[in-house]
From TrEMBL:
Residues 481-608 form the Glycosyltransferase 2-like domain. The chain crosses the membrane at residues 238-262, 274-302. InterPro entries: DUF7928, Glyco_trans_2-like, Nucleotide-diphossugar_trans. Residues 61-215 form the DUF7928 domain. Residues 1-55 are annotated as: Disordered. Residues 10-22 have a biased composition (Basic and acidic residues). The keyword NAD does not apply. This is Uncharacterized protein.
Length: 612
């Protein structure tokens, strides 16, 4: 009798209905759109069946243990009042088609069907005396405030749960007086649920104490515009310290060259070496290369003995402090665009997705909306097993992606040296094609978000039919701003609202480049060396931009204004619209130049610290 015998796993009944895919419900965020790709799922060989059977049994135990743990916590804290399984309990996803539930009847309930449509990893309900007062106190409210300005959505009934904003990871149900919490990692579900309940208690307690102690409202010290009601944007001066440093560098270069010319004159007059005058021919080349070194000397001296207060000020090209956050009820939509190739799914892409989902969740709890847009340039090049693993991963996390055909397939050419620019152009072109079809649809006064999602799915299907070589799935629409990242990026959890606020308050800014740091893993000699070098480069860039220099756009960890990118779009030699240049290796430098020619500003932001 082994350890495995203590866990009684009931085998699910194999029926035709269980094999049917759950119908896609309309959602405020487009998810689970049918992908368009021509291949079949790989099946295990006979030699691997024994290994798969053992792995499946261990997987059953793992899911059963976490389910029992959550069920025990739910009952121990008295978060459940009805044990019949009508709409209260715990669910844990075993695979993409099967959920384990406590009570077992929960699987066929309205709550269970909704969670299957949302395709969450784990979910639980909370029915407690802490939750109920928030719903009974304000029956017409659309959300419940938490600490730090976060707000959790309120839905009328459990039937509306499939249309919930998934990035909230929670929703209050008004009719049933429940709080539903879900999580991508089942081991973190209880911690999230407990944090929300503690936040509710803290919010109502602080509000009560505030009403007792505050007899008069505090005066607003923020100056507001009379027409818009928004905060008046601070004036950002232009710093001229960089101009002074360049002038000193030129003077130093002139002195150095003057010493050389003096020695040259002595040789000509005293030694009659007239051939030395040929040295004057290389003067332009000598000046060009020497100016960099004189600029470095002046820069080092200025950092040692010059002013540094400009590093803590907001100027035209530099943001040292985060802007005032937007006070509007509707925040701009942000799209996080991430081009990938064949990077490792578990080692590289998964940590990036986890970081991005935390940022999206925070932004949506603050009232905004965001979506993740993956341009996977290696998906159609992978073997079937790896390809299906990536597609399942994308579907489980509920974000959109595009994939273009391999180079040379049916005459298709992947242009560019490193292919990043053409990869992003391909994804943006598919998104724009869908938008063009959506603009042709007439929207009556009764048009709802459900109708918008249905229209998007229909237009996306039409675009993929017109481009059979293209693969795409999920929400690939572009918002007001694009946060461009790499596949190995970590972002601050609370950065999207500040970034969107600064872009909204500075309509002349086309790109905000964030100062970045290095995420170390092994901390060995070579990694420490690269880290030191990268930090040195970014510290020099920050100092130069704070002094009045133009900010550099390095191609990642930057937020771009989508309207500005569309304004500088051009047509290539084949007549196709392009946003990124595919004819050079520095598409980011080309993008920055074209934006500045249209009088847009490139700015560097250091208020995020080393978060990026």
């Amino acid at each position: 009798m082994g350890v495995l015998s203590y866990f009684k796993i009931s085998k699910p009944e194999k029926s035709e209905s269980s094999k049917e895919k759950a119908p896609a419900a309309p959602n405020s965020v487009v998810e689970n759109v049918s992908p368009r790709h021509g291949y079949s799922d790989p099946s295990p060989t006979a030699s691997s069946r024994q290994s798969l059977s053992s792995n499946n049994r261990l997987d059953d135990i793992r899911h059963q243990v976490i389910l029992n743990y959550l069920w025990q916590k739910q009952r121990g804290l008295m978060w459940i009042m009805d044990n019949s399984g009508q709409h209260e309990g715990v669910m844990v996803r075993k695979d993409r088609t099967e959920y384990l539930c406590r009570p077992p009847a929960l699987a066929s309930s309205t709550f269970g069907r909704a969670m299957k449509i949302m395709n969450v990893s784990a979910a639980m309900t909370i029915n407690s005396t802490v939750v109920q007062p928030f719903l009974t106190r304000s029956p017409d409210a659309l959300d419940v405030p938490l600490t730090n300005g976060l707000r959790v959505q309120i839905l009328p009934t459990l039937e509306d749960l499939p249309r919930a904003r998934r990035a909230h990871y929670a929703a209050f149900i008004a009719r049933e007086a429940l709080l539903v919490v879900w999580e991508d990692d089942p081991t973190l579900l209880f911690d999230r649920a407990k944090a929300i309940e503690d936040g509710l208690l803290q919010t109502i307690w602080n509000a009560t104490e505030h009403e007792k102690t505050e007899t008069q409202p505090r005066a607003q010290v923020r100056e507001l515009d009379e027409e818009s009601g928004q905060s008046i944007v601070e004036e950002r001066p232009i710093m001229y310290l960089n101009t002074f440093m360049v002038s000193c560098s030129i003077c130093l270069l002139a002195c150095i060259m003057g010493l050389g010319y003096a020695q040259l004159a002595i040789e000509v007059v005293v030694l009659n070496h007239w051939i030395s005058l040929f040295y004057l021919i290389v003067t332009p080349i000598y000046s060009f290369f020497s100016l960099f070194f004189t600029n470095v000397v002046i820069g080092v001296l200025m950092q040692c003995f010059g002013p540094i207060q400009q590093l803590n000020r907001n100027t035209k090209f530099f943001s040292a402090k985060a802007p005032p956050r937007l006070l509007t009820t509707t925040l701009p939509h942000v799209t996080i665009q991430c081009p990938v190739y064949k990077e490792g799914l578990a080692a590289v892409i998964a940590p990036t997705i986890s970081s991005i989902k935390k940022a999206i969740s925070t932004y949506e709890l603050q009232g905004g909306s965001a979506n993740l847009f993956i341009n996977d340039d290696g998906l159609q090049l992978l073997d079937e097993a790896s390809r299906q693993q990536r597609i399942d991963f994308y579907a489980d996390h509920g974000f959109g992606w595009t994939a273009r055909p391999p180079n040379g397939q049916n005459g298709y050419e992947r242009k560019g040296k490193f292919k990043k620019a053409s990869n992003m152009n391909y994804g943006l072109a598919l998104s724009n094609s869908i938008e063009e079809k959506l603009q042709e649809i007439e929207r009556p006064a009764t048009w709802t978000q459900v109708d918008e999602v249905a229209a998007f799915e229909s237009c996306m299907s039409d675009v993929l039919d017109e481009n059979p070589e293209a693969w795409a799935e999920g929400n690939i629409r572009i918002g007001d701003y694009i946060l461009l990242i790499d596949s190995d990026t970590q972002v601050p959890e609370d950065c999207l609202l500040d970034a969107a606020s600064e872009m909204e308050q500075s309509p002349d800014v086309g790109i905000i480049q964030f100062s970045s740091a290095v995420m170390q893993v092994s901390h060995n000699f070579f990694e420490n060396g690269i880290t030191f070098f990268t930090n040195l480069i970014y510290s020099a860039i920050r100092y130069g931009v704070a002094n009045g220099g133009v900010a550099a756009f390095v191609g990642h960890n930057a937020i771009l204004r989508w309207a500005a990118i569309q304004e500088i779009a051009f047509e290539d030699e084949e007549g196709h619209e392009r946003f990124w240049s595919e004819s050079c290796v520095s598409e980011d430098f080309d993008m920055a130049l074209r934006l500045q020619l249209k009088h847009y500003t490139i700015r560097m932001a250091a208020w995020a610290g080393d978060g990026f």
